[in-house]
Amino acid sequence: RDRDRDRDRRPQEDIDEAFSMTAAQLADLVSECFAASNSMVLKALAPDASVCAIASGDVLHAAEDVRKHYLKTKGWAATPTARVYLESDKPGSPSYAIEWYRPGAAPGLNVNGLATQPASKDVVAVYKALKGQIAKIWVGPDSTGIASNKSCTEEDVMASPEMASIMDLIIRPGELSGGTIARHFNNYTNIPVFG
């Protein structure tokens, strides 16, 4: 009987982790809420979330600047055209959503970091989720045109120089590790219709 009681007393942290949002869900929330509710965007961001460069990993905007930006910036419609989602089966590991945006479609981001006006170039953004919030965002240019390529495939994306830089950021330092790393690809401009 005591064993049953102890089993039912899971630490709150374990429960929170089991029901926390993934990077893909949080990236969707940011894109969907950016035009209408910056307070929802702020809820998706961890208190120490920063914006960094994909090419160098350097911090472009510290957490305080990121929070101020999303509080003050008047949003616009934001929609990715492609996404790669990465997750590990190791408990407590972060998940990642890598998204490509056409000009004007990135939620408060451009190739140089935060943006108060829609970007004029294609942007790739990486959202790192940990404990149900966005812990970090990396940004950079989409030099291979994945965002504008309606017929891009998973192979095209994985062979791109941007993806090589991104994998260096998240795999080599051991951030994404575990027994199995799952990868999911979506091209939102080329969705097959059945029937």
Descriptive overview:
This protein is an alpha+beta fold. The chain is built from seven helices and nine strands; from the N terminus they run H-H-H-H-E-E-H-E-E-E-E-E-E-H-H-E. The chain has a seven-stranded mixed β-sheet with strand order 2-1-8-7-4-3-9. The protein has a two-stranded antiparallel ribbon with strand order 5-6. A hairpin with a 5-residue loop joins strand 1 (45-53) and strand 2. The longest helix has 11 residues, at 23-33. Mean pLDDT is 87; it is low at 9-18.
Q: Secondary-structure map with pairings?
A:
Elements: H1 2-8, H2 12-18, H3 23-33, H4 38-44, E1 45-53, E2 59-61, H5 63-72, E3 82-88, E4 95-101, E5 109-110, E6 113-114, E7 123-130, E8 133-141, H6 154-158, H7 161-170, E9 181-187
Parallel strand pairs: 1-8
Antiparallel strand pairs: 1-2, 3-4, 3-9, 4-7, 5-6, 7-8
Helix pairs in contact: 3-4, 4-5
Please supply descriptive tags for the structure shown above.
195 residues; alpha+beta; seven-stranded mixed β-sheet; two-stranded antiparallel sheet; 29% helix
User: Beta-strand percentage?
Assistant: 25-35%
Lateral arrangement of strands in the main beta sheet: 2-1-8-7-4-3-9
Q: What is the count of helical runs?
A: 7
User: What is the tally of beta strands?
Assistant: 9
Which range best describes the helical content: under 10%, 10-25%, 25-40%, 40-55%, 55-70% or over 70%?
A: 25-40%
What gyration radius follows from the Cα positions, in whole Å?
17 Å
Instruction: State the end-to-end distance.
Output: 54 Å
**Runs with pLDDT <50, length 5+?**
9-18
Gross morphology: globular
Average pLDDT works out at: 87
Helix/strand-derived category reads alpha+beta
Which assembly state applies to the chains in this document?
Answer: single chain
Order of helices and strands: HHHHEEHEEEEEEHHE
Largest sheet composition: 7 strands, mixed
